[in-house]
Amino acid sequence: METLKSVAKSYDECRPLFFALGDKIRQRILLALSDCGEEGLNVKAITQKIKLSRPAVSHHLRILLKAGLLRLREDGVQNIYSLSARQSLEKVKAFIDRIESFMENRSKQK
Question: For the chain (length 110 residues), average pLDDT per consecutive 10?
């Protein structure tokens, strides 16, 4: 049986993802990366695609990495970024399942 506490804990686990997805620049980065597939892009290529400074792109990439939405691969001196959302999506699914279970249990108690 899900409790409000377990729902809140699950939400906290998803908070970095929600924060990361809530920004239009990060959304543009994700779209740019989704366009290139498994190969990924380096910071310079992302900067050129979304027309943003290198430091700003790097800042947003760190947030996306922390949220579990990206995979980082080193290629010589370059960092190559690609999409990797499976783990984050699993957290969101678990969060939704907990909410549904909590709401179902609440309605049975009434």
Answer: 84 93 96 90 96 97 95 94 89 92 82
Secondary-structure breakdown of the chain: helix, strand, coil percentages, each rounded to the nearest 5 = 70, 15, 15
The C-alpha atoms of residue 63 and residue 89 are separated, in whole angstroms, by 16
Helices 4-21 and 54-66 sit at what angle, rounded to 10 degrees? 160
Torsion of CA 34, 23, 25, 67, to 10 degrees: -50
Strands of the 41-42 sheet, one edge to the other = 41-42, 78-83, 70-75
Cβ 23 vs Cβ 60: under 8 Å: yes
Residue pair 41/32 in contact (Cβ under 8 Å)? The answer is yes
Q: Say which CATH class 4-109 falls into.
A: mainly alpha
